[in-house]
Amino acid sequence: MPTRQLFSASALAVVDQVLLSALNFAIGVLLIKLATKETYGLYAQLFALGLFVNTLLEAWLGGPLTTVVGRLLQADKATLIARVYRFQMISAAVMAVLGALGVAAVFFFEEVQWESQHWLDTPLGIEFAFAAYVLTSGLRECQRSANFIEHDVRTVLKIDLLYAIAVLIGMSILAWQGWLAIDAVLVTLALASGLAAWRGHRSMPVAQVAAHPETVQTAFQEVRQQGRWAMPGAIVGWLANYSYLYLSSLWLGVIAAAELNASRLLMIPIALAAVAWSRVAHPYASRLLAQHDWAGLRKLSALSMLALEGLTLVYVACLYLAYPLLQQHILGEKYAGLEALIVLWGVYFAINTLRWIGTTWLSSYGAFRLLFWQGAGSLLAMLICANYALSQWGIRGAILTLILIEVLELLTNWFFLLPLVKRRSNQALSPVSAPTH
């Protein structure tokens, strides 16, 4: 794919992520205005847990598949994608069960006191609703990954548009009837994801007769092998980036988690724009690396940095200037005084976008073991720093800790890990043939 087509596809992917960003923002604003801080704080933690499950699925199969599939013929590629998709469906069901257990852990360790409004609005009912949400959203994410690999961003946009429409209709009904409880929101998201997953299933690549069955089998084993390191790497990476939400709740209470997430909610467009870029750039970078086209990769890196960093700086500046209006019409008095948190989140995401580019290139190399050890080190540093920072600076300490971790990962990505895997790649026949060295 030429660079021009890459950025054209990236533009569509950004539109897709803007759609999802606006949807998540609308849900957050609705809960901020109409629900209690306790309800919104718990929703923020469950939503982050749902992202964690989808991150695991992507690391277990989606990411390694994107790395491996670029060198296969079309018939072999379709066969491999269909095989991995079947495996992902089973994995999503397993993740749903584990997700329900994760919700039980949130209720248990934080000793959440929940006042039930009806028979489903109980810890057990919320666990079942969350499991349904995890299953259907996992299937939708699997289909999105497959279409991104095929560079069919239009189909991804159609899937997410259907999902967004269904969520908006469902949430409007809940707001109208006054049913904005956690269980009702999760069931709405689950039904919308299920409808979108049904639509996406019809557009999945159809398995063909593989031109080289032994090549497909070898590639599938390579996907599994890379996933064994990518998945624990995703776990420690997610913990390093999101455990602040749970630590803040443990240290300062669930209201602190609500304020942290309310301020971060305004930054969702930046986070999703970076994700949109990576979903398109990852397959392209894998092919550049397979061809040892270092000049093309340097050009892509420079353009990506300029685009993402420019978008981040402009957005944060506009957000800061518009904060008085946001305070008056969206956040309300319950979430007054979040300006300092918004500035800190702006610094965090300015660094995060640069670090994310390096992490995407490392994934394209297949350097999942290195990413695991980096994530493990970041998690250890985060746990040490967060406990001190939360006790000294309260909510601000959580974001300051995240900024420190992003700086460390940014430096190690660009000045140590990427040069290391490039040297190893130059000594091998293909950069994706030795991902676990």
UniProtKB/TrEMBL annotation:
Signal peptide: none
Topology versus the membrane: Multi-pass membrane protein
Keyword field contains Cell membrane: yes
InterPro entries given in the database record: Poly_Biosynth_Transport
Top-rank taxon: Bacteria
Stretches that traverse the bilayer: 12-36, 42-63, 84-107, 156-174, 234-256, 262-281, 302-323, 335-358, 370-389, 395-417
Any single Gene Ontology cellular-component annotation: plasma membrane
Main location: membrane
Compartment(s): Cell membrane
Keyword flag Disulfide bond: no
UniProt entry keywords in alphabetical sequence: Cell membrane, Membrane, Transmembrane, Transmembrane helix
PANTHER family membership: O-ANTIGEN TRANSPORTER-RELATED, PST FAMILY PREDICTED COLANIC ACID TRANSPORTER
Protein known as: Lipopolysaccharide biosynthesis protein
Organism: Parvibium lacunae
